[in-house]
Each structure stands twice: as C-alpha cells, then as structure tokens.
Amino acid sequence: MMFTKMKNIDSAFKYVRSFTMLVIAGCVVICCFALYKSFQTVARMQDKVYILAAGKALEAYASERKDNIPVEARDHVKTFHKFFFNLDPDDKVIKTNVTKALYLADESAKRIYDDLKENGFYSGVISGNISQTVQIDSINIDIKDYPYRFKCFARQSIIRTTSILKRSLITEGSLRNVSRSDNNPHGFLIERFNTIENKDLGVENRK
C-alpha cells in the first residue's frame, strides 16, 4: 500500500511538473509573439507621417530614399533649371531665383552665373525688359553609378517686346547626396553642371 501511494505521488508530481513546464513554455511563446507584434506595429507606425494642412492632419507614408531616387532627382534638376533659367526684368527677382538655384548646385553653376553677370547678360535682361522661361521636356537620370549622372532636355522662350525667340537647351551634370534642408529639400547637390547645347530654333512675332 505504501509503495503504491508513493508511486501515485511520484506520478502526480511528474504530471504536475510536465503541466507546469507546458504552461511556462506557452507563456514564453505568447510573450515572444506579443513582443514581435509590438515591434511590428511600432515599425509600421514609424512609416506614417502626418501633415497638417488647412487645420486637418493628413496621413502620408514614408518610404526608403532608394525607392524615390529617380523621382526626387528629376524634381531636383527641374527645380534648379526653373530658378536658374526663368528670368524677369527685375534685379531682385533675378537675385532671389538665382540664389535659390545656387543652393541646389556647386561652384560649376556659380561660375556660369558669374560669367553671365560679368558679360552683362542680366543687365541686358533688365534694360531690355526681357523675360525668359524654360520648359522641361525630359530629364534622364542614371542611378546605376554614383554620383548619379543626368541629362536635361528643355526649351527656352526669350520674350521681348516685339518677338519671342525659341531656343533648345540641353544640360548635363551629376548629383551627389547631401543633407536635406529648407533650401535643399531633396538632399541632392548638382555637380559639374554644363550646357551642352543652347541654339536658336526660331522667332515668333508678337501681335
């Protein structure tokens, strides 16, 4: 009888121990799963950006920079050309636009500006009441190699009192990564900027 009772107690102890280990293992699995889901939720929340517009919080989605390089690079090049080549016969407007453009490029663009200024180009724009606009046709970005090479195809319109001169404009350069800022939101810097072609296409008389 005594031996049977001891055997039953030993069996019960083994059963309780097995059950306890099973419960502990289950708790560990549940805790690990809860931690995993928590980290997953936090990571997903970090991909969300909220923009305040017109008093309302609008949700935007963040993505890795490499996914947006072609889009951001093209917009950077387009923005630079807009500020550098769009001119009006106003000294303050010219200085403001060129200053914005030079935040987006290195000394290669600054040299072109200095040469144009020294040759009286901007003075001629102001004295002749000339406006100049640029229209981007296409921008090719090569992201296979870094720095990223680009080539921009555009058309210029030089608007005078009696006529509009149409010109082709082809430029090239490379893009280097820099820190983003208010003056350079895309985080690129144009280097080795060069004008490949800038020739007359035709003249339209203004009515």
From TrEMBL:
InterPro entries reported in the protein's UniProt record: Conjug_transposon_TraK
Source species, domain of life: Bacteria
Keywords: Membrane, Transmembrane, Transmembrane helix
Residues annotated as transmembrane: 15-36
Name of the protein: Conjugative transposon protein TraK
